[in-house]
Amino acid sequence: MARKGDVMAWGSRRRTGKSVYARRCAFARRLTVAMVGCIALPAIAAPSSDSTTSQSIRLLVDGKAPVVLDRASLSALPRASVTASAHHEPPSQWQGVALEDILRKANVPSGEQLRGKAMTTLVRITASDHYQVVFTLAELDPMLGNTQVILADTQDGHPLNKGGPFRLIVPGDKRPARWIRSVATIEVAQSAAPTP
């Protein structure tokens, strides 16, 4: 038995009868199990991302109370459709609501009203996984940029199962980087312009 001040050699035995190496291996196994438990338990306890995807979208416009858009409120708006493809997939028929109609319903300036300070307004769309894309209000306006953007809820006549329940479709983009899946929030705000 070692006395105070004695140095224990690697592999020597203490009271337990196990070598230091065996005790360290046992400790490493317990630590590994604990770490895996800390990482895996939240993933096991939380439902999959598809099942936690919200069935509604929050619409936030500067200076106005937030609005919740669900399937019922979106079905009251005119339907739009577009044929487009993303990521080398065959073209699909996407149906939903034009983003400009959603913004018009929220009394966001458009057409002749879109001038001056309103020209610096941004529209930021956030997915449930926090991926974000940005449009200028001017590029979305039919009288200026006329970029067609659809908030799709069906593809080829079927509800979206992958990336749904709502997905942004931007057929005019050369790359589908702004085809955001699982849309959770639409925010309309003035851009922060530097003061001269």
From TrEMBL:
Question: What are the residue boundaries of the Oxidoreductase molybdopterin-binding domain, all occurrences included?
Answer: 93-193
Give start-end of the signal peptide.
Answer: 1-45
Could you tell me the keywords of this UniProt record? Signal
* Pfam families, per the entry: Oxidored_molyb
Taxonomic superkingdom: Bacteria
Coiled-coil intervals, chain numbering: none
Q: Signal as a keyword?
A: yes
Query: What is the recorded name of this protein?
Result: Molybdopterin-binding protein
Tell me which species this is from.
Dyella psychrodurans
